[in-house]
Specification:
Helix content is about 25%, strand content about 20%. A 6-stranded parallel sheet has the order 2-5-1-6-7-8, with helices on one face. It has a two-stranded antiparallel ribbon with strand order 3-4. The protein is globular and about 60 Å long. The N and C termini lie close together (about 5 Å).
């Protein structure tokens, strides 16, 4: 399943098939991902996640040793314990690494889910809630393969090249679509 190069546009990666999960803030992306990841992990699959944030992220209190070393000028600090490992890299004005660079750093997995990066060209699942008052992304983004929504499918949406329409309140339906997508990606490899 692994490919020689890393690309956000090729869903087959060393880090497993890559699927973006996009939508406006408050649409339920994280809640849906929590549900899907728990079910997939419960079936023995290894799932990686890349979560993009537009905000500064503080992962440790400033007084902790790892934060003090990072603030002293370390380029990267690896915080290792018997329970988890974290690598903190200070960009210090350097450009934000690309999604492809982040994917290249991940360990192998059966699936990598990317929350955010809605502008990247990659296979995507959109979480859409009309009640937020924000427009759907799928009409303008041909990379969106399926829409997960709490609204009914618009008339005339079914057809060649149109995204599948899934019920946000039916995680079994979303999981079945995801597993079918993964099978198709793996069979194409």
């Amino acid at each position: 399943m692994a490919t020689a190069t890393v690309s956000a546009t090729d869903p087959r990666q060393a880090s497993g098939p890559v699927l973006g999960v996009v939508g406006w803030s408050g649409s339920g992306k994280t809640s849906l991902l929590e549900e899907l990841i728990a079910r997939l992990a419960g079936r023995g699959l290894r799932v990686n996640v890349v979560k993009h944030s537009h905000h500064d992220v503080e992962l440790e209190p400033p007084r902790k040793d790892s934060a003090r070393l990072r603030m002293a000028g370390a380029a990267e600090v690896m915080l290792a314990s018997p329970y988890r490992v974290a690598i903190l890299r200070e960009l210090r004005g350097a450009p934000e690494p690309s999604l492809a660079e982040h994917l290249a750093r991940l360990a192998p997995a059966d699936l990598t889910l990317v929350e955010g990066y809605k502008w990247e060209r990659m296979p995507k699942l959109e979480v859409f809630r009309p009640s937020l008052g924000r427009p759907a992304l799928y009409p303008e983004d041909p990379s969106i393969l399926a829409v997960v929504s709490d609204a009914r499918e618009p008339n005339g949406l079914n057809g060649e090249g149109r995204p599948a329409w899934l019920d946000l309140n039916d995680p079994d339906e979303v999981l079945a679509w995801l597993e079918n997508w993964m099978r198709n990606i793996c069979n194409a490899a």
